[in-house]
Amino acid sequence: MDTQLPSENQIFIPIISDYGFKATFGNEANTLFLRKALQALIKSSIAIKEIKFDKNVFEALTIDSRSGIFDLSCTDENGNHFVVEMQLGYAPYFVQRMKFYALHKFNVMVEKGEFDYEGLPKLYAIAFLEKNILDTPQFHTIANLRSEQGEIIDNQMTFITVELSKFNKRVADIQTDLEKLIYTMKTLHKTTDISQYPPFWNEDWLKRAIDELDTRKMTPDERAYFARVTAANAEAVKAEKKKIEEARLAAKTEAIKKALRRGKLTNEEIAEDNDVHLEFVLSIQKQLVINE
Question: Scanning 10, 149, 165, 257, which has its CA 20 to 30 A from the CA of 68?
């Protein structure tokens, strides 16, 4: 998803961007959008009346521009805890990250209760993913600890995953608040004409969030801030990608060296196994001969 500074024709900042996430999900001045979104995500018929951002356990909003992860932690009026994360790009091990955050939060809750496990509030670990990671057809997945027969063993901790690329409903088919939320997250930044606005964008909770992302309503200072954040994050992501690529290359180089020293495979087989060109294997082989 493109999170660069809006072009001349682009009206809205993407919700799935550091700025967009903070302006909507992380909006401490007005939590209506967050409250309605959480209610839809956990599929509750009971409205969430209040939300308090947790600054002691987690910073209210964490932006990791290096990996495209934005997250926040909050608590509702009944003491239920929510950890909300946004992941840009492919993240095959993101479930492990969700477990780390959720279990860290769980441990804090237990310690605050002086290690009393009775009556613990519910904990929801919610993740929005730009790419797919689960081998399931649905875009919205709710998971609890279950038995072999599928019976719920514990629902105190709930994992909720939203894979945006799996959602492809048309406006005419959208009915639930969850579907309205995901449609808005996927399409808002692509909208350039008022005729494209679906009727539900006039609902108060979505309209307030959309207004926060409308570049036409941004002050010069807000636009300057958005430009600085976007530029800084673009550089950070570029640098991180370079580090990752260098690490992958180093790992492949070591694997090729080991295979060459063993002498059991042909150079062609080593190249195929490591997904590199034959010339790369030959260059490493030549370097080994020189050094050894």
Answer: 10
